[in-house]
Amino acid sequence: MSLLKLTIATTDYDHFRDFRLGQVKAEGIDLNWLNLGHHECFARFTANREFDLSELSFAKFCTQVTRKDSDIIGLPVICSRLFRFSSFYVNKKSGIKTAKDLIGKKIGSPEWAHSAAVYMRGWLHNDMGVKLKDVHWYQAGANSPGRAEKVEISLPEDVKLTRVADKSLSEMLASGEIDCAIIARPPTCFLEGHPDIVRLFPDYLEMEEDYFAKTKVWPIMHIIAMKKSIVEQYPWVARNMFNAFQESKKRSLERLLDPAVSRYPIPWLTTYARKMRDMFNGDTFPYGIEENRATWELMSLYTYQQGIAHRPFTPEEIFPKGIMTSVII
Q1: For residue 174, which of 94, 96, 117, 85 has the smallest C-alpha distance?
Q2: At what angle do helices 115-127 and 293-305 cross, to 10 degrees?
Q3: Is residue 152 a contact partner of residue 63, using CB atoms and an 8 Å limit?
Q4: 159-202 pLDDT, tens per residue?
Q5: b/e map of 52-82 (b: 16 or more CB within 10 Å)?
Q6: Domains of the chain as residue ranges with CATH
Q7: Could you give the angle at which helices 293-305 and 58-65 cross, rounded to 10 degrees?
């Protein structure tokens, strides 16, 4: 039987590498795997559907999968996931010491449908009493000007968002034009040691551990999206792809936990990895629906509140029917 030829585009993650290099295979599928930067994956898949499957920002996925007659569906495979309390950067001259101090301030993010910012705006709005309408929001490129929104959004009527095309968030934060930036990676002004730019939450690690213990939410940044037409024509593709991703991740984590074969030359990394394994009940990076239900559901709430998703959704709606069917013997 001939193999089904598909093209996929992702960043080079270690948990995908055995699959990408052919050491793990998806039954019945011949993959043409493009190793691209994630912003390129997002832009090209969102604009032109150039690939059959692609890494995609979870926030941008939420917009597209909730469109009427959406042409995409997801795999419950996580490319990237990170806790984000470390992502608040403030100018000390703004006098911001706590989350509540952000009320009435100017806060920037690279895009409105930016997963890191979506989680933290949602946390502020729902948990900290800093409502979306209480802030003047700004959108600009993180360290270079010119970044644009990649998906349609429908802002709540009482939310104020200013788009800046000729400056970066790093520039505006350093100059005091904005008070805070929520950015996935540290802005240049912080990395270069600007004396006024600090993290709002320097104790972010303890905050994130406490947040996970209380909520069981392990924020998902990027997932795998695929053309819905593939699943409609070949229903078996989704589960076979999921199985291969799962096996590739399993091998990656096994290496990380074994100092004799770990790819990363960092002392005590395996000791820390074993600690994280125990904290996360045996799987530090779970795939699947039920394993991540709290996170899928929270992102549904946040993206709908923020005018990114067209409607609320359940995890079962955004993934192929029956993809998690048990096959235990």
Answers
A1: 94
A2: 80
A3: yes
A4: 999 999 999 999 999 999 999 999 999 999 999 999 999 999 99
A5: bbbbbbbbbbbbbbbeeeeebbbbbbbbbbb
A6: 4-82+219-251+285-318 (3.40.190.10), 85-215 (3.40.190.10)
A7: 70
